[in-house]
Specification:
Immunoglobulin-like, flat, DNA/RNA_pol_sf, protease, peptidase activity, RVT_2, hydrolase
């Protein structure tokens, strides 16, 4: 622990701010570079004899887990211009325009210190945001109200903090595709967010679906009942003529009366045999 003592002594001598951070379930965040399989865990429905689970993330007790975790962490830190050095412990530092930031990493513990309060605060916020988005992404397939409310809080924070924590390292990056709004990302779930401006009473979301069932099939949509809003799906029937065919539809949300709490429901597409459910959440933002 000589390295820790040396860095702590430097921070005290220079009267720098110093913080300790802990990463929860650190080894579960690592990504595998090779294929790793495990036996089916107890309670999981067994398939054919000899079947196994292919791991996408590392687990505790695996030999690769510490290395996978560190590679994930170091990749994230280097994206925000932290260079790495090895001094017994892994150390990352950044020095730009007189601002110095240092990060010591020991397994899942981080010591953060430097000579600029704002730089330290932005670094801590960057890690908190990355963790929040990582957790929220696990519920994309079937989000509940609490998940949407958490996502709205993250978005509203970013809206109120322009220029912080979301970095475009290469200013020349371009995108060939355009979206009418964030809700047009082709996720299974639909999120209609009405802004603070009460003059905005309509939100439209587009989706594209692929037929993975019988080549010829026809799906009718059933819409949940929502308080304070009318929901219209066009077209209300999707008629597929071949497998893997793609069809698009749009959903229009029209406010009748703004609600104080989010409304949750779903669109369910039925063909008489199959049901395909798309969760829906409707939120009315209130002024900060």
């Amino acid at each position: 622990m000589v390295t820790v003592r040396v860095f702590l002594a430097i921070a005290v001598a220079k009267q720098w701010e110093l913080y300790q951070m802990d990463v929860h379930n650190a080894f579960l965040h690592g990504d595998f570079e090779e294929e790793v399989f495990m036996k089916l865990p107890p309670g999981l429905h067994k398939g054919q004899p000899g079947e196994a689970c292919k791991l996408r993330k590392s687990l505790y007790e695996l030999r690769q887990a510490p290395r996978c975790w560190f590679l994930k962490l170091s990749s994230a830190l280097k994206k925000i211009w932290l260079c790495s050095i090895m001094l017994g412990l892994f150390s990352f530092y950044s020095q730009q325009n007189g601002v110095q930031l240092n990060v010591l990493v020991y397994v899942d513990d981080l010591i953060v210190f430097g000579n600029d309060h704002e730089a330290i605060t932005q670094f801590k916020t960057y890690l908190n945001l990355a963790y929040s988005v990582h957790i929220l992404s696990q519920f994309m397939q079937n989000p509940q109200i609490e998940h949407w409310e958490a996502a709205i809080r993250v978005v509203r924070y970013l809206k109120g903090s322009p220029g912080q924590d979301v970095l475009n390292v290469d200013g020349n990056l371009t995108c060939k595709h355009t979206l009418a709004g964030p809700s047009d990302l082709n996720y299974p779930a639909l999120s209609a967010v009405f802004p603070e401006d009460k003059k905005v009473t309509t939100v439209t979301i587009h989706r594209t679906v692929t037929n993975v069932g019988p080549p010829t099939s026809k799906y009718h949509v059933v819409i949940s009942q929502f308080n304070g809003v009318d929901v219209k799906v066009e077209p209300s029937v999707l008629s597929f003529t071949k497998k893997n065919q793609k069809l698009s539809y749009k959903v229009t949300f029209t406010t009748k009366s703004r609600q104080t709490a989010p409304q949750a429901g779903a669109l369910i597409w039925k063909d008489g045999v199959h049901k395909v459910r798309s969760p829906v959440i409707i939120t009315w933002l209130t002024p900060l």
